[in-house]
């Protein structure tokens, strides 16, 4: 069986890699029971460090839209050069609160 592919960085997710499910529409914004995707934990952390729940629900509810976000695209290119099991603290700071 082949490893699942992370829809953000497009690397395989080996069984030993830190991973988590991401609700494409946040649960708090009506996504409970909605579609989820399996991500590397580092990719999931970066999504939530970059976008608010409202932004995710409003404009970033598909893997394609997430990959098109400038900060997430830059992150995906960076992490894509790491081994599939790579994990570290989320680089960069959290999004700026408004």
What is this structure's SSE topology?
Elements: E1 19-23, E2 36-40, H1 41-50, H2 53-59, H3 63-68, H4 70-79
Antiparallel strand pairs: 1-2
Description:
This protein is α+β, with helices and mostly antiparallel strands. It is built from 4 helices and 2 strands. Strands 1-2 form a two-stranded antiparallel sheet. α1 runs antiparallel to α4 (70-79). The longest helix is centred in the middle third of the chain and has 10 residues, at 41-50. This is HNH endonuclease.
Question: Summed up, what is this model?
Answer:
The protein is of the alpha+beta class. 34% of the residues lie in helices and 10% in strands.
Descriptors for this entry?
single chain, HNH endonuclease, 4 helices, 98 residues, globular
Determine the mean pLDDT.
91
Which range does the strand content fall in?
5-15%
Report the C-alpha radius of gyration, rounded.
Answer: 13 Å
Total helical segments = 4
Overall form: globular
Structural class: alpha+beta
Runs in which pLDDT lies below 50 for 5 or more consecutive residues are none
Fraction of helical residues? 25-40%
Protein name: HNH endonuclease
Organism: Pseudooceanicola nanhaiensis
